[in-house]
Amino acid sequence: MYHPSPFTKSSAAFLLFLLTILGLAFYAWLTQLREGLAVTGLNRPVAWGVYMANFVFFISVSMSGTFISAVIRLLKLDWGRPISRVAEVLTVGALLMAALNILFDVGQLWRALLYIPVYGRIQSPVGWDVIVLLFYLLMSLGYLHLSVIPDAALLSETGGRLSRIYNLLRYDWVGDEKQTHLLENALKILGIVTIPVAIMMHTVTGWIFGIMKSVPTWNDALMGPYFIIGALLTGLSLVILTAAAIRWRYHLEDVITDHSFTQLAKLLAVFSLAYLYFFMTETFTVRYAAVEEDITVSQYVWLGPLSPLSWYVLASLVIPSVVLLVPRFRTYKTTVVMAAIILPAMWVKRFLIVVPGLLNELRLPTVQSATPYYIPTVIEVLLTAGSFAGLALVVFVFTKLFPPVPAWEVWGARKLTTRPPSIFSLKSVFLAWVVGLIMSAGFVFAWSVTTITVGGDHALYLYAVRPQDLQVLSFPLMENTPMLNLLAIVVLSGLAVLFFRKLFQRG
């Protein structure tokens, strides 16, 4: 477990396969940057397509990681410890791929890199989504970083080619009882904070759709909890499949046991039933309300060109729900098969959430095409494939460098005899992550309060402006961001410096 696995022929072939897909995706992205979004199937009114479906899907996958790992640690579920690291790595990789798909969707890269931080507004739900995504990514990186410190310490003593890198990641870890207790408490604290942040992440993503009154079937108060349940089901399915692949590839049958998959099967049954409930509630609400635009979309989805996809999603929810309710069917193989059925269906469902409402948009005739249509192009397919290959590459590289299971939690922390000459201690690393999180939260809070106090009542509805009143390239106001960004960063950084100075003086 503490010797990084070598690159065999099969590993090299798999790595070459992933790099080939990523190379094609990079070429497709360069083509899109050069030619613009005209090379995609996006149009008016279908301004969102596969890229946005990918974004929602990867955001859902991210729910699996740190959230599930935090619950496992807080509830002290011994059967879940071997899969906690799989979940944590998937979270970081999925968040990175979600951010990339946003960059794909905006067309020109410089627009996102310039407009979002400079012209973004706290009133925008999209702005909040970016804020929570970055905050969740920061927390997930901190969570994963702390959890690998004991394993990095043991890897540093193996004398391999990467021992110097592992030595930097161990800090002053020697594995004594005091350090172990501190690390466990640190992970619990981050876990407690992670759970509400993860819920906010998926709630805000759902609200991006739920507040869109102009698009049929999107304006629904259930979008927040609907997205949370969908995220739990999607993320759990991918965790099961990834854990099964790692168990098979590294022969960890005695570590990631059948009992772990049996327990995961129970959760999978609960989440699939819950999502099936929301899925049918969404349909019945539209049908019985009988709003013309919504009925048109419902007919299009269930009886029209996209009906095979809708019935496929329904079958993919019903079959696992029924099968996993029977105790004798909750085996390792059955659980993996049911997860493999659910996961692609959840991506298809994201596509069905995004596209049909835009195709049948009737409330904005000024941007309506004569014959609405949307067919993804090769560029979109390649970038989608590259996104999935990127997530697979993150997991693949991590499992080659670190133990795929948290060995120090499964078998206990091993006490080391040597203490590395590190200028950073475990306590200072944990405090650095805490200060970073506090600064981030303080920045958002200061931004929100200043926006309201400076902008007054006008700031509350500043986002809801008429298109002719919106001057995109005008100099941002105080409540819009840049001046406040600089002020908040300077003030919070100064407080952080004072905090560390006082801390070191005490030491």
General description of the model:
72% of the residues lie in helices and 0% in strands. The protein is mainly alpha-helical and 507 residues long. The chain has 2 domains: 9-417, Formate dehydrogenase/DMSO reductase fold; 425-507, no CATH class. Helix 10 (258-289) packs across helix 12 (307-324). The longest helix is centred in the middle third of the chain and has 34 residues, at 177-210. The model is unreliable at 462-480 (pLDDT under 50).
- What share of the residues does DSSP label as strand, in percent? under 5%
Question: Which range best describes the helical content: under 10%, 10-25%, 25-40%, 40-55%, 55-70% or over 70%?
Answer: over 70%
CATH class division of the largest domain: Mainly Alpha
| Helical segment count | 18
Topology:
Blueprint: H1 9-35, H2 50-74, H3 81-105, H4 109-119, H5 125-147, H6 149-156, H7 163-170, H8 177-210, H9 223-249, H10 258-289, H11 292-302, H12 307-324, H13 332-359, H14 378-401, H15 407-410, H16 426-455, H17 457-460, H18 482-506
Helix pairs in contact: 1-14, 2-3, 2-8, 2-9, 2-13, 3-5, 3-9, 3-14, 5-8, 5-16, 6-7, 8-9, 8-16, 9-10, 9-13, 10-12, 10-13, 11-13, 12-13, 16-18
Task: List its traits.
507 residues, mainly alpha, Formate dehydrogenase/DMSO reductase fold, 2 domains, 72% helix, globular
